[in-house]
Write a structure and sequence with these properties.
This protein is an alpha/beta fold. It has helices spanning about 10-25, 45-60, 60-75, 80-90, 90-100, 110-120, 160-165, 190-195, 215-225, 240-250, 265-270, 280-290, 305-315, 325-335, 335-350, 355-365; strands spanning about 1-5, 30-35, 105-110, 130-135, 150, 170-175, 205-210, 230-235, 255-260, 275, 295, 315-320. The chain folds into two domains: about 1-175 and about 355-365, Rossmann fold (3-Layer(aba) Sandwich); about 180-350, 3-Layer(aba) Sandwich (Rossmann fold), CATH 3.40.50.2000. The protein contains 16 helices and twelve strands. The strands form two sheets. A six-stranded parallel β-sheet has the order 2-1-3-4-5-6, sandwiched between helices.
Length: about 375
C-alpha cells in the first residue's frame, strides 16, 4: 500500500499524529509519505500560516480563543464556512500531486486538508480512501462540513457530540489519537533515567509547554523549585521556544534541568513521576499512554479547554485556575503514590494504546474488499 498523510504546521500535535500513522505503515512494510500540505503551494505559504498560528497562541492566546468561539458560531449557522473556501484553493495542488504520486489512502490529522478533500469530492475529482483523524477531545469548528470516508475519533463518549454536529455515525471509528510506538515501549523508570543520564535516586517533575513552549513556564518553574526537596528535581522541555530556553538558562533556577526541543519525549515521560503540560490533545494522549500522572496548566482557550475538561472529568489529570493552585495540587500528586496509581489506572482504562494499528487495519481491510 502507498499512503499519503497530509498535515499542517499549526502546532506540533497534528504532525506528531501524522508521524505516528506513518510509523505504523512503514513498520508493516508499506510506503507512507507525509507532507505539510500547504507546502504544495510553496514553502512561503506554509511558513506564513504556521508562524501566524504559533505567534498568536504564544503571545495573544485570548485572541485565538475568541476566533475559536467565533468559529463555533459560524459552524452552527453556515452550510460552508470561509475556512472551506480558503482551503478549496489547495485542490489543484493536491489533484496534481495525486496524479503524479498515486496513493491508496489519504490520511489527514488536520482539518485544513480535509476541507480541501471535501471540495474535491464535491467537484467530482477522483480520490482514494480518505480518513480524517481528530486530534482533540472535542469536535472543533468545521469538521461537520467535511466529507471524508472515515473519521478517527479520540473516544467513543465524544461520538454523540460529533454526530449531533452532522457527521454520520457509520463513518466514525473510535480508535483514539495515534501516538508514537515508543510510547508503548516497556521501559522502567530506572532504565529511562539511565538513558537520559539522570540521577536514579531523584524523583523528577516534567514540565512541558508543548512543541511551542507555550504558557507562563518560568513563573511555574520558580515556584515549583521553591517547593522541592534535595532529592527532587524538575526537567523543563522548552520546545522550539528559544526565548524561553535562554530565559531559564539565565535565571539558573535550583533543581532544574533545561532542554529545548527533544525527539524522545516518551522517554522523559517514563523517567518522571508527574508532568505539567498544557492540555494539547496529542501531548495529553502521549502522557496517558506513557502512564504518567498529569497536571494540566492553563489551556489555550478553545479546544484545549475541552481537552482538559475531558481528562479531569475522567480522573486522568488534575488542574487549577492559579499557579499557586497548580503548585499545591501538583506537589501533592507528585508525592502521593496512591493518587498516582489511581490516575494511571484511569488513563489505562480510557485511552487507547493501539490507535495507529487500528488505522492501519482499517485501511488494509478496505484495500482487500
Amino acid at each position: 500500500m502507498r499512503i499519503l498523510i497530509l498535515s499542517c504546521n499549526t502546532g506540533g500535535g497534528h504532525n506528531a499524529a501524522g508521524r505516528a500513522v506513518k510509523e505504523i505503515f512503514e513498520k508493516n512494510g508499506d510506503e507512507a509519505v507525509m507532507l505539510d500540505y500547504l507546502c504544495l503551494a510553496g514553502n512561503k505559504v506554509s511558513k506564513t500560516v504556521g508562524n501566524v498560528y504559533i505567534e498568536t497562541v504564544k503571545n495573544v492566546p485570548g485572541l485565538f480563543g475568541a476566533v475559536y468561539k467565533l468559529g463555533m458560531g459560524v459552524s452552527r449557522i453556515c452550510h460552508r464556512s470561509p475556512v472551506y473556501y480558503v482551503n478549496s484553493v489547495m485542490a489543484k495542488y493536491i489533484k496534481q500531486y495525486l496524479k503524479e504520486n498515486p496513493a491508496d489512502a489519504v490520511i489527514m490529522p488536520h482539518l485544513y486538508p480535509a476541507e480541501t478533500i471535501t471540495y474535491m469530492k464535491r467537484h467530482g475529482m477522483k480520490l482514494p480512501l480518505t480518513i480524517a483523524v481528530m486530534t482533540d477531545y472535542t469536535c472543533i469548528p468545521f469538521w461537520e462540513e467535511t466529507n471524508c470516508d472515515y473519521y478517527i475519533t479520540p473516544h467513543e463518549s465524544l461520538n454523540g457530540e460529533i454526530i449531533k454536529r452532522g457527521i454520520k455515525k457509520e463513518k466514525l471509528r473510535s480508535f483514539g489519537i495515534p501516538v508514537s510506538l515508543s510510547c508503548n515501549d516497556n521501559i522502567e523508570k530506572k532504565e529511562a533515567k539511565n538513558i537520559l543520564s539522570l540521577d536514579e535516586n531523584k524523583k523528577y517533575i516534567l514540565v512541558s509547554g508543548g512543541s511551542m513552549g507555550a504558557g507562563d513556564i518560568s513563573k511555574l518553574v520558580k515556584k515549583l523549585s521553591d517547593a522541592l526537596n534535595d532529592d527532587e528535581g524538575i526537567i523543563v522541555i522548552c520546545g522550539t521556544n528559544k526565548k524561553l530556553y535562554k530565559q531559564l538558562i539565565d535565571e539558573n533556577i535550583p533543581h532544574v534541568i533545561i532542554k529545548g526541543h527533544v525527539n524522545n519525549m516518551p522517554v522523559y515521560m517514563k523517567a518522571c513521576d508527574v508532568i505539567y503540560t498544557k492540555p494539547g490533545g496529542l501531548t495529553s494522549t502521549e502522557a496517558a499512554v506513557c502512564n504518567i500522572p498529569i497536571i494540566h496548566t492553563k489551556p489555550i482557550p478553545g479546544c484545549e479547554t475541552q481537552n482538559s475538561r475531558f481528562f479531569v472529568k475522567n480522573g486522568m489529570s488534575i488542574s487549577a485556575k492559579t499557579t499557586d493552585g497548580l503548585i499545591k495540587q501538583g506537589i501533592k500528586l507528585f508525592r502521593d503514590d496512591k493518587q498516582k496509581v489511581v490516575m494511571i489506572k484511569n488513563q489505562s482504562d480510557i485511552i487507547s494504546k493501539n490507535s495507529s494499528m487500528n488505522i492501519y487495519n482499517l485501511v488494509k481491510n478496505n484495500m482487500e474488499k
